[in-house]
Amino acid sequence: MSLWTSLEPASATVDPGSSTRVRLRVRNTGDVVDEYRFEPVGDVAPWTTVEPPTLRLYPGTTGTVELTFAPPRTPDAAAGPNPYAVRITPTEHPDAVTVPEGNLTITPFTEVRAELVPPTVKGRFRGRPRLAVDNLGNTKVTASVSGSDTGDHLSYEIRPGNVQIEPGRAAFVETTLKPRQIIWFGSKEERPYSLAVRRSGVEPTEVEGTYVQRGFLPGWLAAFFGIALALTIAFVMIWIAYKPQVRTSATDQIEQAGSALAPSPSASAGPETLPSAAESAPEVPKAPEQPASEEPKGDGGGGGGGGDKGGGESKKADPPKPRTAATAVKEVAARSEGRHVCYRAYVADQGWQDPVCDGAEAGTVGKNLPIKALNIAVAGTEGVTGNGAHVVEGWLTGSKWASTADGVDMYLGSSKEAVSPLQGFTLKTSRGTVCPNTHVKDKGWLEQGCTKSADWRYFGSPMDQKLQLEAVRITV
User: Strands, E, within 253-370: which ranges?
Assistant: First the structure.
């Protein structure tokens, strides 16, 4: 072999998001002038640069190149020792390849993000929000979830109570909220609450939500029952106060008739005549007459009061606007600072799904339903740019990319039935990196990594295979 190499140092340590350098010394031990090409290989090769990429040496001379390692602060930069190597190919002897090896240790970091889906739930007896916990670090995270609210109005059922999340993955926690007291009558009440993601040694990550508790029976029904009860009591009181007093004279007439028929003690006395029934029967008092109530007269003085007859037709209510990715990302940005991305998928035979954010899953898995279009919006990245590739048409818009600012909807692909589904897409952000994860038919989740800062990258099916895109997860 006509080449001597030395890595100085052979082992190095670097923090994700920063960089470190290693010097590679090369000596030409042959007897001819040779040019050497340097190419990094291994798992850390995407984050490694060699300066200069080629080196020309005379026999017996030594040259130096620098290896710069700059792993991103993403889950792709796995914590721990990562072996690397540099392939050195001589121009004069291309078969005599030398591959010096070294070791790069990437320090661990943790970053957890949590989101309630949806942030507001409604119900009379319970609400069921989902808590999405994303591990954006490069090491496994173990966390527990608990709930609390001001006033202790709610009880919480959390399944599972503890989660273990691999780097770059998300866990979904099912939560059931139950009010401690039921609202039988009346209007709805809002119950603010928070779910805390607790990890050992760090401050808990709290996510706030709202439970809107509805009344069991509507308020108008309670008012109706109250008015009906008041009217019933008033009617009973009036009946008792004005009940007719009816007397009967039958007993008095019988007594008077008996005394008239009795024999007189004096024989000479003639028979007494019976009193006339008309004279003895007392009059029955009549019930007091109620004054006739007057009908209310309208302000116009003439007609009774119907509604506006012959008025104009009522205006039809406008249909509700769809909830897009821009709507969702503005809500998330209002609650949490930093960079955020929200997105939704147009799935064949289903239409537009609801938007999800920051690594949650959009589309379907295992249902053979392709994604035809994507709606993406960002916050904190100074805009997003992208283009969609279709299974049949390829790049439908050619070199014309879609580009929008923060908080504005961007659309990739087409929902038209005549256009084939997406097979992939390109993305870049003006600030920071974007890390999509795509699920492709017959391939599953591809784990394609992240873009470089302010640079674009393609994500999805290999262009030569033309496989339909079925689900995505995106973080920034």
Answer: 340-347, 351-352, 356-357, 362-363
Residue that finishes a domain, picked among 106, 137, 166: 106
The pTM of the whole model exceeds 0.85 = no
State the DSSP code for 217. B
Alpha-carbon distances of 132 from 109, 113, 114, 258, rounded to whole Å = 20, 8, 6, 101
Number of residues written out for the chain:
476
Q: What is the DSSP string of 119-168?
A: SEEEESS-B--EEEEEE-SSS-EEEEEEEE-TTS-EEEEEESSEEEE-TT
Domain count, the chain: 3
CATH code for position 102: 2.60.40.10
The token pair at 387 is: 């283009």
According to DSSP, residue 46 is labeled G
Instruction: Decide which of 213, 246, 266 is a domain's last residue.
Output: 213
Residue with tokens 């309208």: 298
Start-end of H helices in 281-370:
325-335
For the residues of 26-76, what is the DSSP string, one character each?
Answer: EEE-SSS-EEEEEEEESTTGGGEEEESSEEEE-TT-EEEEEEEE---SSTT
pLDDT category of residue 153 using cuts at 50, 70 and 90: confident
